[in-house]
Design brief:
By secondary structure, this protein is of the alpha/beta class. The structure holds BIS(adenosine)-5'-pentaphosphate.
Length: 213
Amino acid sequence: MNIILLGPPGAGKGTQAKRLVDERGMIQLSTGDMLREARTSGTDMGKKVAAVMDAGNLVTDEIVIGLIEEKLEGDNGGGFIFDGFPRTLAQADALGELLASHGATLDRVVEMQVDDDALVARITGRFTCGNCGEVYHDVTRPLPADGKCVNCGSTDMKRRADDNEESLRTRLMAYYKQTSPLIGYYYAKGNLQSVDGLASIDEVAHSIAEVLG
Ligand code: AP5
């Protein structure tokens, strides 16, 4: 089964994708993670990508479609979770064509609905394990008392450069202008399902499980 997790910055896409990887053996394809990896390469392309991401704007379609294309060549395990991709109508068209060229289909598009006030609180409180990428939050998902990652035991925690109020405003604007039209696009194609992303992490996981069947 191949699915898209669609939602604004901070909707919980990465959090739920990691659960689906653990519970269903699916493969998470996060263009945000791929781009953060690319920016550490020190190449000219990496430097350009870093500046665009830190400001909260979208990287070009050409770059992200190329990244996804490479990943689709590999084993799809229990199916792909597209996390943060597609983000424009051109990316959505390209994904449909790429999947068709591999004889694959897009089975579900899960829209995670969260209001803007909650997004600000989530983004400004987020941090991740620098070793394994486990996602935490100052209030809703703090570290245990020993200060160690529940997944790998590391104490190396990181905050993203674009997780500040100014970049978030730009990211939200990009979402509403360029990405939210995908809700209508996938509704019209008949594979859109919406879940309440404001519920607890466990409750959201339960709603997604119901949608996926
Ligand atoms: P990307 O990395 O994709 O960031 P994003 O879409 O802004 O999404 P986030 O990772 O910020 O949020 P999330 O929905 O995964 O939430 P999370 O689970 O972490 O993209 C970054 C940048 O890369 C873009 O701005 C752009 O520049 C570029 N880019 C990426 N893809 C691109 C593309 N396709 N095209 C062009 N450019 C692209 O949760 C957030 C916090 O909330 C966490 O602390 C978590 O613990 C907490 N939380 C999660 N769920 C709940 C819950 N139910 N209740 C309470 N707290 C919760």
